[in-house]
Amino acid sequence: MNAFRSVLISGPPGIGKTTAAHAVARENDYVPLELNASDVRSKKILEQNLSQIVDNRSITEFFINKSNESKSSMGLKGKKVLLIMDEVDGMTVGDKGGAVALASLIQRTKIPIICICNDIRSTRISPLLRVCFDVRFRRSRTPAAQIRSRILEIASREKLDIQTNAIDELVSSTQNDIRQIINILSTYRLKETNMNFDNAKQIGRVNLKSSVLNLFEIPGALMSLGNWRQADLNQKSEIYFHDYNLSPLIIYENYCRYNPVETGAIWGKPKTATCQDMELTAKATEAIADGDLVDRKIHSLEQSYSLMPVHSIFSCVRPAYYIKGYSQESPKFPA
After folding, report:
1. Distance of CA 133 to the CA centre of its chain
2. pLDDT at 235
3. CA–CA dist 135, 44 (Å, integer)
4. Angle, helices 275-298/247-254, rounded to nearest 10 degrees
5. Does residue 250 carry a pLDDT above 80?
6. In terms of domain of life, where is this protein from (predicted)?
7. Is residue 308 a contact partner of residue 295, using CB atoms and an 8 Å limit?
């Protein structure tokens, strides 16, 4: 680790990556300076100012909006600064090359930098992997049991009476996102003082769309049998819109890796392909081909973007209807 000037923290949303970065900074007497997706950090801006990044004062003045400079910002001068670059995997198309410029900055800067991303497999951050120490945050395999006691403590302080099975339901519906659970409870407590399982289940359905899936979670969200059974048609269609450009492609890349439950597939047991397997795969392939026709209409000169809900059904939901089942392989990025 001593060979690196920066750390790249990755992990799912709400797991505490940014909080951990701030805690590390303060524990080591650094002033954390955080930049996120709303800050200007394109390749052009970074490259124009690389020569200015020499010491703590320069890095501070570079990123502070000079028109809004205040006494608080002036107070950073002379102090050790730790730069936190949040959401580095979320750079837009206009920021193409920003990761390359950031990697160059890391190689030259004299201050420590912590980069944070949700998806370590994103091609956008590959330049950073060569210059950053890789630290990965993962959720516990038994998150409900570990989260429950803490949520009960928070609820008690806020005078909210909540059942333990209600907490488990919130953990499931938010995909173990502790931050989202606390936000849900905070909003709920404004009007209510008690939460049972039925309340949590209803709230979970409403907040399901707030759990943003990364690209590699989309195949499982649609084609995994458990997730398929829990979601209604609208919720399945909404999954497409988490990344409507790449969702159809990652479904196409991974649908053959699933063993359809319709053919008697059982989790953990390899199964020899049968005629029924091939028939279901053929139907899913046909649905994907129909989705391509809709996609061509959307991106034609007519730009019929109103067809996107239809495209979500043909390209993602309908193939998953035939293929839903089990897979023991990790999703692959579209070739």
Report:
1. 20
2. 84
3. 28
4. 160
5. yes
6. Eukaryota
7. no
pLDDT, tens digit, for every residue of 4-55?
889 999 987 778 899 999 999 999 988 888 876 445 455 665 555 544 543 4
DSSP assignment, residue 224?
B
* Rounded CA separation 82/113 (Å): 6
Identify the sign of the CA torsion 227, 228, 231, 237: positive
- Measure the CA–CA gap between 316 and 222, rounded to whole angstroms: 8
pLDDT of residue 41: 52
pTM over 0.70: no
Query: CB-based contacts of 166: which residues, under 8 Å, 6+ apart?
Result: 195, 196, 197, 199, 200
Residue 114, phi-psi category: left (phi > 0), alpha (psi -120 to 50), beta (remainder): beta
Tokens of 264: 């008697």
The separation between CA 16 and the C-alpha centre of its own chain, rounded to angstroms, equals 13
d(CA 96, CA 294): 29
The answer to whether the Cα torsion of 305, 306, 309, 314 is positive or negative is negative
More confident of the two residues 288 and 51? 288
Residue that is written with structure tokens 């955080």 in the block: 34
Domains in the chain and their CATH numbers? 6-136 (3.40.50.300), 143-210 (1.10.8.60), 215-326 (1.20.272.10)
Quote the tokens at residue 87.
């959401």
Strand intervals (E) in 163-318? 194-195, 259-260
